[in-house]
């Protein structure tokens, strides 16, 4: 029965001791320990949140970059397409121009040739006339001596002249 | 280190028993029950060992509140007497010690030289002064307080010194325990909203019980006191939990005790006295659980050691040592669990008293 009969002295000292221990530990141990643990957990929590935010931002940045890249690609494609079109247009224009120029040139050349030919013909005719007149003069002067011979020469010459034409 | 503790364990017991055995040969038989009961109860002196048949012990202050005020003297005045045969006279008052209780002494001894009058159940009929002595258990309790203040004072200082509040040194060991109490005991039982207020109490309770349990397991001076296996100790702690539970109990708590909602009226009348008794049974169960578990641990270890003296042969020593070491190792686990259970149930009772019911 002694075992389960509490002693007044021990009851008293346990209570006093526990009370003192409680207040001392509360002030000098639990407050600083729990305080710094809390603070640390808070800072870890905040760091995690910040990391999550940074990750999201990175994601956004990445998608932005992709968008920009895509746009740039499209733009490049467009530019290339435009360039190609312009090139084709330029080439075809140049070709047309060249064709026109060439045809003009040919035309003018033809005209010039015709002119030259005409003038040459005229000159030839002139020369032929003069020559004919000269020859005729000589023939006449010669043939006047031999009529038959004269006639033959004229004929021959005329034939030659027409052949040369 | 383990071996060292183990050797000390053996030596301290063999030292204390050798003389007992010697004396038992020429007087009576070795009384195991007396030895064990003597060990698990409180004492006015701190027995260290027996040397050449004489006990070596540290005298502790005796503080008495008598009819004529405060009386103090050292327990060595009784000269190791525990049978009311040595009278100490101070301020005209005489005291004797009988089975670790201090009585006012009779002026004349009885037939066996005792200055007390024994009743039928061999309990003295003399009146007693109020005993506030610094006994072995109180001494042990003060020591545990010094140890706790050292351990947690240093822990707290480690935090202040370290950068970013990281635990350093001994705080690395104490922090997981503190967090365990917070995350596994306080928050689940009391709830996120209120737990902070009760953290200091639960932490103090847990470490106070645990360190005293552990100190009781160390079998040499200045430890080995069976403080947490003393009903006075557990009664005070249980009473504090009871007081907190009763003070913080909200309307719901009292309603659930006296007028249980959700059951028919006859049932309400039937449940009310049961629930009312429950208020007291809860702390009483706390008190008895800790007291019985720790005392039982001490009794088992001592009984196993005593096997040697009961069988009166040295050949049983290996077996009894093996089993006592085995039990001691289990006890290390048990004392931690008991401290945890006491704290956990305290938190549970406090939490239940504050719970907001949603009916």
Q: Can you characterise this structure?
A:
The complex is a heterodimer of chains A (165) and B (359). Chain A contains 2 helices and no strands. Chain A has 165 residues and is an all-alpha fold. Chain A has one domain. The mean pLDDT of chain A is 87. Chain B has 2 domains: 73 residues, no CATH class; 218 residues, no CATH class. Chain B has a 3-stranded antiparallel sheet with strand order 4-3-8, with no helix packed on it. A 3-stranded antiparallel sheet of chain B has the order 5-6-7, with no helix packed on it. A two-stranded antiparallel sheet of chain B has the order 1-2. In chain B, a hairpin with a 2-residue loop joins β6 and β7. Chain B is globular, with a radius of gyration of 24 Å. Chains A and B meet through α1 of A and β8, α3, α4, α5 and α6 of B.
Provide key terms for this protein:
heterodimer, A: 165 residues, mainly alpha, B: 359 residues, 2 domains, three-stranded antiparallel β-sheet, 60% helix, 11% strand
Count of individual helical segments of chain B: 9
β-strand number of chain A: 0
Overall mean confidence score, pLDDT of chain A: 87
Q: Spatial order of the strands in the main sheet of chain B?
A: 4-3-8
Number of domains of chain A: 1
* Shape, principal axes of CA atoms of chain A: rod-shaped
Main sheet attributes: strand count, strand direction, barrel closure of chain B:
3 strands, antiparallel
Order of helices and strands of chain B: HHEEEEEEEEHHHHHHH
**Proportion of beta-strand residues of chain B:** 5-15%
Number of strands of chain B: 8
> Which secondary-structure class do the elements of chain A indicate?
mainly alpha
Task: Briefly summarize what is shown.
Chain A has 165 residues and is an all-alpha fold. Chain A is 93% helix and 0% strand. Chain A has one domain.
Q: Which SSEs are present, and which pair or pack?
A:
The complex is a heterodimer of chains A (165) and B (359).
Chain A: H1 8-143, H2 147-164
Chain B: H1 2-26, H2 32-40, E1 45-51, E2 54-59, E3 61-66, E4 69-74, E5 88-90, E6 93-98, E7 101-104, E8 130-131, H3 136-161, H4 171-190, H5 195-217, H6 231-248, H7 251-258, H8 265-311, H9 317-354
Antiparallel strand pairs in B: 1-2, 3-4, 3-8, 5-6, 6-7
């Amino acid at each position: 029965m002694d075992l389960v009969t509490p002693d007044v002295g021990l009851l008293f000292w346990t209570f006093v001791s526990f009370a003192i221990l409680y207040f001392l530990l509360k002030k000098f141990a639990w407050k600083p320990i729990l305080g710094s643990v809390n603070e640390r957990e808070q800072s870890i929590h905040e760091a995690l949140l910040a990391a999550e935010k940074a990750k999201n931002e990175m994601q956004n940045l990445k998608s932005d970059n992709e968008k920009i890249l895509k746009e740039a690609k499209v733009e490049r494609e467009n530019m290339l397409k435009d360039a190609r079109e312009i090139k084709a247009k330029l080439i075809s224009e140049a070709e047309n121009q060249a064709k026109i120029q060439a045809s003009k040139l040919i035309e003018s050349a033809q005209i010039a040739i015709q002119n030259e030919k005409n003038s040459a013909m005229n000159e030839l005719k002139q020369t032929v006339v003069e020559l004919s007149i000269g020859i005729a003069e000589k023939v006449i002067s010669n043939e006047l001596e031999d009529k038959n011979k004269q006639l033959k020469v004229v004929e021959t010459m005329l034939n030659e002249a027409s052949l040369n034409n | 280190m383990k071996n060292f503790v183990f050797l000390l364990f053996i030596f301290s017991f063999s030292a204390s028993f050798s003389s007992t055995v010697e004396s038992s040969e020429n007087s009576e038989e070795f009384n195991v029950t007396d030895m064990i009961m003597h060990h698990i109860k409180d004492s006015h002196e701190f027995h260290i060992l027996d040397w050449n048949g004489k006990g070596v012990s540290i005298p502790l202050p005796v503080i008495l509140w008598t009819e004529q005020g405060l009386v103090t003297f050292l327990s060595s005045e009784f000269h190791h007497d525990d049978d009311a045969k040595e009278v100490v006279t101070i301020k005209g008052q005489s005291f004797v010690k009988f089975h670790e209780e201090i009585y006012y002494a009779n002026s004349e001894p009885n037939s066996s030289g005792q200055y007390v009058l024994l009743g039928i159940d061999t309990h003295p009929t003399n009146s007693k002064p109020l005993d506030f002595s610094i006994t072995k258990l109180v001494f042990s309790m003060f020591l545990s307080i010094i140890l706790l203040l050292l351990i947690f004072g240093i822990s707290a200082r480690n935090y202040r010194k370290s950068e970013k509040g990281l635990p350093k040194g001994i705080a690395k060991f104490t922090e997981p325990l503190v967090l365990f109490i917070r995350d596994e005991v306080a928050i689940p039982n009391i709830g996120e909203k209120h737990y902070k207020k009760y953290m200091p109490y639960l932490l103090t309770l847990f470490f106070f019980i645990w360190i005293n349990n552990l100190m009781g397991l160390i079998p040499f001076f200045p430890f080995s006191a069976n403080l947490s296996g003393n009903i006075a100790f557990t009664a005070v702690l249980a009473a504090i939990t009871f007081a907190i539970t009763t003070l913080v109990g909200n309307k719901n708590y009292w309603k659930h005790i006296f007028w249980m909602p959700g059951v028919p009226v006859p049932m309400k009348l039937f449940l009310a006295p049961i629930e009312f008794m429950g208020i007291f049974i809860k702390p009483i169960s706390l008190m008895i659980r800790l007291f019985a578990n720790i005392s039982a641990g001490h009794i088992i270890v001592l009984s196993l050691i005593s096997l040697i003296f009961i069988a009166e042969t040295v050949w049983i020593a290996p077996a009894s040592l093996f089993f006592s070491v085995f039990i001691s190792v289990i006890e290390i686990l048990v004392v931690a669990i008991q401290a945890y259970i006491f704290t956990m149930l305290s938190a549970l009772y406090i939490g239940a008293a504050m719970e907001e019911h949603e009916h």
